């Protein structure tokens, strides 16, 4: 082949495909060039792709014999058809703020092309709102957001705490809407059960706290994880052992009555109820650790849906105003059983502003008319509780803190359109203490954190409706400036930009 006829340097996209399954393993960008000194060490010679640096493919050298590499132009109609094709085999979508960032929407979009969609921590305290292709709204709490992809398998991992009655209510609503869960929803045999007594204990505990309430969803999450940590909880597989179930429930009822004398529970009624639920849930029960690792070995595409968010993490969040699990990457690994080195893309989801439900320090919180305007435009009311969310400006200090914990590879900046009407937009870039000292780290001491004032950068608004825009180039100049500044401050690309609630309202930067 005459190299002189190859042509000028142009962008290409290289797709790594598993030969055995035909499924994509990863994709990355490079250049098609006639010279060996191309920026990415790749040449195309007589239709063959040669890679001299496999680190850029995300593949180990031992895997190279099992894949084929193909190349196409990185622009044009084919690229527009599939803007998510460069995602790797295992993707995690994680909340980077205080929850409610809009994770479910991106999960729903990506899940249309993925085989296995997983939840790995939390429980019915999570609320993910998604829309199908017709615009129909679904509010999910325990079922993974990938359930709308009829070809996918949805998996509830062992790191979750599961309230079976509400899970079946959710399943029934989906079935009534024409979304079948039969054979598509798997529940870990290692997951812990959350009983109504846990919910009652949650509410009673909040009442005790009086003026110092945590602001929990009262869904029983904390007490259920406490039962797990105290080694008196009930795992899903134990539903198949009626005698053991009675023994465990007797302990839980006794403990709850001792702790809360006003608690009134009917043990026999609960055992009768769970005898029926045990038969009903049995077809869903699975060794999900074995399942997900087998799926990985078979080259299936795996998507992990985080619940809650890093700033509510029981270790990294604003303790004690946190959830009772680890919504960060460590909780994903521990709650799913998939090794860290198997993860490819880690996408951090962040609103273009911030919200928080419940009590706790919130450095960039807004008050008054501006907070109410953002709450109204963004419809900032909890999916799970219906409570109005506290609203504030984007907090870069908190976002960078979440980034260093999780190792995000890119960001999904959501609800940018909710800032359309503002004359100015502010970004919190630091914290000032009572002595006037500016810090740029997120402190552990919540009293100290509560004493801090946010330091802001003010940027001009774009004063234009962007909800119908679908490409980055079409965005107003000031909107692009805002996005670029977020990228500069975090060191991460805002690859996915949400401009509305619908599945199509997502701009993908290539």
TrEMBL record:
HAMAP family: Adenylosucc_synth
Cofactor(s) listed: Mg(2+)
Binding annotation for Mg(2+): 100, 127
Pfam families, per database record: Adenylsucc_synt (PF00709)
Oligomeric and partner information: Homodimer.
Name of the protein described by the UniProt record: Adenylosuccinate synthetase, chloroplastic
Family: Belongs to the adenylosuccinate synthetase family.
Function text: Plays an important role in the de novo pathway of purine nucleotide biosynthesis.
Binding site for GTP: 99-105, 127-129, 389, 415-417, 498-500
Gene: PURA
Binding positions (substrate): 383-389
GO molecular function, one term: adenylosuccinate synthase activity
GO CC, any one term: chloroplast
Catalytic activity: IMP + L-aspartate + GTP = N(6)-(1,2-dicarboxyethyl)-AMP + GDP + phosphate + 2 H(+)
């Amino acid at each position: 082949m005459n190299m002189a006829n190859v042509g000028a340097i142009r962008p290409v996209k290289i797709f790594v495909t598993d030969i055995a399954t035909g499924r994509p393993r990863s994709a990355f960008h490079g250049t098609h060039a006639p010279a060996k000194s191309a920026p990415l060490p790749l040449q195309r010679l007589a239709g063959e792709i040669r890679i001299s640096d496999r680190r850029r493919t995300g593949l180990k050298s031992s895997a190279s014999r099992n894949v084929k590499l193909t190349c196409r132009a990185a622009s044009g109609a084919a690229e527009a058809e599939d803007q998510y094709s460069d995602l790797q085999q295992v993707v995690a979508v994680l909340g980077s703020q205080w929850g409610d960032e809009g994770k479910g929407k991106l999960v729903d979009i990506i899940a249309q092309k993925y085989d296995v969609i997983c939840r790995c921590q939390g429980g019915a305290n999570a609320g993910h709102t998604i829309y199908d292709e017709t615009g129909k709204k679904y509010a999910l709490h325990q079922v993974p957001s990938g359930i709308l992809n009829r070809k996918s398998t949805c998996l509830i991992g062992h790191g979750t705490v599961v309230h079976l009655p509400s899970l079946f209510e959710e399943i029934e609503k989906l079935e009534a809407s024409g979304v079948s869960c039969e054979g598509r929803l798997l529940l870990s045999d290692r997951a812990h059960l959350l009983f109504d007594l846990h919910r009652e204990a949650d509410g009673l505990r909040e009442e005790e706290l009086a003026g110092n309430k945590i602001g929990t969803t009262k869904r029983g999450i904390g007490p259920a994880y406490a039962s797990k940590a105290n080694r008196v909880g009930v795992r899903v597989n134990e539903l198949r052992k009626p005698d053991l179930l009675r023994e465990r429930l007797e302990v839980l009822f006794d403990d709850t009555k001792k702790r809360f004398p006003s608690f009134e529970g009917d043990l026999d009624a609960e055992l009768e109820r769970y005898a029926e639920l045990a038969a009903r849930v049995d077809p869903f029960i699975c060794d999900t650790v074995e399942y997900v690792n087998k799926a990985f070995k078979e080259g299936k595409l795996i998507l992990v849906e985080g619940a809650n968010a890093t700033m509510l993490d029981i270790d990294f969040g604003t303790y004690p105003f946190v959830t009772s699990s680890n919504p960060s990457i460590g909780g994903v690994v521990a709650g799913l059983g998939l090794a860290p080195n198997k993860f490819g893309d880690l996408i951090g989801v962040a609103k273009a502003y911030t919200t928080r439900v419940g009590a706790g320090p919130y450095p960039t919180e807004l008050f008054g008319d501006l907070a109410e305007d953002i709450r109204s435009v963004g419809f900032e009311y909890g999916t799970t509780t219906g409570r109005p969310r506290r609203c504030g400006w984007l907090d870069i200090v908190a976002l960078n803190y979440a980034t260093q914990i999780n190792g995000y590879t890119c960001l999904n900046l959501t609800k940018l359109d909710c800032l359309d009407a503002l004359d100015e937009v502010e970004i919190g870039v630091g914290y000032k203490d009572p002595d006037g000292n500016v810090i740029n780290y997120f402190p552990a001491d919540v009293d100290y954190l509560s004493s801090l004032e946010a330091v802001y950068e003010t940027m001009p608004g774009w004063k234009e409706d962007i909800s119908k825009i679908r490409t980055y180039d079409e965005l107003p100049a000031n909107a692009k400036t805002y996005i670029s500044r977020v990228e500069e401050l975090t060191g991460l690309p805002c690859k996915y930009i949400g401009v509305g609630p619908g599945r199509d309202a997502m701009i993908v930067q290539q």
